[in-house]
Write a structure and sequence with these properties.
Immunoglobulin-like; 9 strands
Length: about 130
């Protein structure tokens, strides 16, 4: 910007309702990363997939973090052949509320057998390693 040209500064003022709403709905910037090792004894004959209705559900609130991206696993409806007795994949979710200290990973699907991992204790990095079977 050339020197000598005055710059107007704008000040944005939120009313009390908006300030309180923003405070109550603040989530951690960034995302939550869940590294999964999927264990299977009959891996040669099995496949897995992940539904887009997989969430991180915060305890003590009604907040659900949506799944954003997957690595090394297919989206529903396409099954992926397991790679061995341990098949690693990664799930990336929206951030959790700052107040969240514990949460569940739940794949909400209209059939039996959805992924589920309960009572995950929150850490500062928001990167987790779990095993599912």
């Amino acid at each position: 910007m050339p020197s000598g040209i005055p710059v107007k500064k704008r000040v944005v003022v939120f009313d009390e309702f908006v300030q309180q709403s923003l405070k109550n709905n603040t989530v951690v910037q960034g995302q939550v990363v869940v590294h999964v090792n999927f264990l299977s004894e009959d891996w040669e004959y099995s496949g897995i997939r992940i539904w887009p209705t997989t969430y991180l559900i915060a305890h003590d609130s009604d907040h659900k973090s949506k799944i954003l991206q997957v690595v090394n696993i297919n989206w529903y409806p396409t099954y992926m052949q397991l790679k061995g007795p341990v098949t690693p994949f990664t799930l990336i979710f929206e951030g959790l509320p700052k107040s969240c200290t514990q949460f569940d990973l739940v794949e909400e699907i209209p059939q039996a057998g959805g992924f589920e991992y309960r009572n995950i204790k929150r850490n500062q990095s928001d990167v987790y390693h779990i095993e599912l079977s």
